[in-house]
Amino acid sequence: MTPRERTDVRRLPEKQVRDVATLHAILDEALQAAVGFQVDGQPFVLPMACARDGGSLLLHGSTGSRLMRVLATGAPVCVSVTHLDGLVYARSAFESSMRYRSATVLGTATLVADEEKLHALEVLTEHLLPGRWAELRAPRARELAATTVLRVPLDEWSVKVGDGFPDDPDEDLDEPVWAGVVPMRVAYDDPVDAPDLGPDRPVPPHVLAVTSGDGS
Amino acid sequence: MTPRERTDVRRLPEKQVRDVATLHAILDEALQAAVGFQVDGQPFVLPMACARDGGSLLLHGSTGSRLMRVLATGAPVCVSVTHLDGLVYARSAFESSMRYRSATVLGTATLVADEEKLHALEVLTEHLLPGRWAELRAPRARELAATTVLRVPLDEWSVKVGDGFPDDPDEDLDEPVWAGVVPMRVAYDDPVDAPDLGPDRPVPPHVLAVTSGDGS
């Protein structure tokens, strides 16, 4: 569970974080990951919903998707998750940057077997929509058959965190400009009923918890 | 400026959008992109700041970064931008999804020449920190030398938008659960001064405009 040479951070190595708790926290806050694979030397990157399941990351998609078919053959994959946490206004364009937390996982995906698929879909659903799984009907056999779930082990990874203030050189500190950070976050607005929602279907507490969870 | 075969959307093709204005809008809202490349068959995906400059996308990074060196050789690249706009609560796990807007650009990057670099950095800075460029000192020669800027033409791309409500089959409409959408957005909080900020350096209006721009 330690980063290896090819995942060592080369740029701004002081921003590399090596503890697995930070990796897990970054992944656990992510609803989607950028998943990279290559076909005949052409890289492709596609966004996919993701959820951590212990020491691995679950991805799911349609059984018919090219990405799923390529990855299920054991092709190398790179999964990238990034959270932007703020705009960093330095005294120069050169030092201006962003606050961010990013995780990169290299590895090979394996197909989640049929007998594990229900568990994997529960983990994914509960990660994306916490509290929802228990109130939904069970998946139908044809829905399970139409869904591919992949598991990527969290064996080879790197994490980079930029969480500070502008790091201007001394010679720039007297520049006549403001310097600081504008924090960013994801906010959730009030739930909107589906147009075809029937009567007596109130918004459940777990949905209200998502909406109020951003502190705004 | 039209998508080609290898960028055609294969899954949920009804979500593919082919007009360039939507592509531009998605890119113009993005502060970072997931940039994919491959080395010896291993895909890598790294987050990078990005900005559209007319019919191309600018990326910048350190002259010493591996990504920059690989891409500057004319290696194939894939740039992916995704905005999550909401959680879609359907009546089944299978139909549950997210609202999103995603753009994928395939191509080859070219190095921005020295004489264009200042323009490119202005475009990047003004995209990420609107209004900031004019109040900053000019970049120093060694800062320009330490920065590589790449340009990826927006020639081959695809856009996918999921902006609707749950699309449950009729047989599920009587399920005894709420269904609907929880909208998501990026919110900006109040600016925080740098700890080493000198006196008489008020937060400029362009920064306050970012903070108030999220409507909260």
Automatic annotation (TrEMBL), chains A, B:
Cited InterPro entries: Pyridox_Oxase-rel (IPR024747), Split_barrel_FMN-bd (IPR012349)
Domain of life: Bacteria
Region (Disordered), start-end ranges: 190-216
SUPFAM superfamilies: FMN-binding split barrel
UniProt protein name: Pyridoxamine 5'-phosphate oxidase family protein
